[in-house]
Amino acid sequence: MQKIRITNGFHHLENAGIVQMYFIQGMPFTFEELPLGAQQIEEVKLDADTAKVYTMEDLFKASDYLVLEGCHPILYDLSEWIENYEEVPD
Question: pTM, whole model, 2 decimals?
């Protein structure tokens, strides 16, 4: 069985600024807000500026889908399915 991976990256989240977004199979499922100082780091800004901009509605729809399918990594124990389960934020 091939396990899936959690990935993350810096993205603009509408009305929240630059955040660290977490993905399962390319689908966003949560984010962590970054302090203003971290948002101003050039590499972080460049990554976010060249990545997709998300809205809270985008995140809600993706999370809702993951919950309905029983595969939201924060709500369900998917440690057997996720190769890097330690990357799932608390």
Answer: 0.93
